[in-house]
Amino acid sequence: MSGADSFFDTNVLLYLLSADATKADRAEALIGGGGTISIQVLNEFAAVASRKLGMTWAEIREVLTPIRTLCRVEALTEVTHERGLLLAERYNLSLYDAMIAAAALLAGCKTLYTEDMHHSLVLENQLVLCNPFSDK
Predict the structure, then answer these.
(1) pTM exceeds 0.85, yes or no
(2) 136 occurs within a structural domain
(3) Is 57 in a helix, a strand, or coil?
(4) How confident is the model at residue 6 (pLDDT cuts 50, 70, 90)?
(5) Which domain holds residue 64?
(6) Could you tell me which of 7, 42, 85, 115 has the fewest CB atoms within 10 Å of its CB?
(7) Is 86 strand, coil or helix?
């Protein structure tokens, strides 16, 4: 699978900063291969890094700059919003998870790497949810 087919949820990016070396290395390997993220993922990362990890804005930018170089960034649009609402309703996803899945679908991705959503669920016969930290 090419990096262009992959979309990363916020939690995968956050594992780059993890004390768990196995998860940090796995996240780094995945993201290093390229892929896609959304503006929502960037915003969620910045919020968690600032609020929960106590990082400065300069430190947050330092982490996000190479990620934005490696990954295509999908914009959030009204189309993303509408698709997300449909996904939330159809698959019983949280609103924010559904918006990430909608961005992945609209970007044409085949795999959404996420620790938060149902591993192996297939959305719209196109997007497979994959927990990259699972032994399954």
Answers:
(1) yes
(2) no
(3) helix
(4) very high
(5) 3-130
(6) 85
(7) helix
